């Protein structure tokens, strides 16, 4: 049978337990899950691309079918190159919906074969975002319960 391949794209600046929860659950439902850091020129990031990839790789080391990559192109082109038929996105609250709908609609127009699957976040992470994590950590407060261990170490080194 053909391999079921999915892509979970994002900025991951840095990866949080919310992202990790989606990754763990998505990885159980696909043969291969690419976690792909998108190069976003309009966003100034705290961690550079290599650091973000390393933190994802360390945080997902125990999940054998996860592959960490980066991409600077259009998501639909990247997905095709990887033979992925599904894009995974996480939904936290109603506030995510409009933005996600817009992206999914555009991707569908660009490549109708590519499906977007939405996964509801675990309620314990519904308030969690990379930006909140960066903000709190920048004031020297602990975010240990909110991020994987490699990320909390990297944040301590940074601030
Ligand atoms: P982007 O800039 O593409 O939104 P993010 O790294 O912020 O990149 O998010 C990547 C994906 O992960 C998005 O689908 C986002 O909705 C989802 N996500 C972000 N935070 C969480 C969370 N706490 N729980 C579940 N999904 C999340």
UniProtKB/TrEMBL annotation:
Subunit structure: Homohexamer.
Gene3D superfamilies for the chain: HUPs (3.40.50.620)
UniProt keywords, alphabetically: ATP-binding, Coenzyme A biosynthesis, Cytoplasm, Magnesium, Nucleotide-binding, Nucleotidyltransferase, Transferase
Species of origin: Listeria aquatica FSL S10-1188
Enzyme class: transferase
Pathway membership: Cofactor biosynthesis; coenzyme A biosynthesis; CoA from (R)-pantothenate: step 4/5
Subcellular localization: Cytoplasm
Protein name as annotated: Phosphopantetheine adenylyltransferase
Residues annotated for substrate binding in this entry: 11, 43, 75, 89
Binding positions (ATP): 11-12, 19, 90-92, 100, 125-131
The keyword Magnesium belongs to this UniProt entry's keyword annotation: yes
Cofactor(s) annotated in UniProt: Mg(2+)
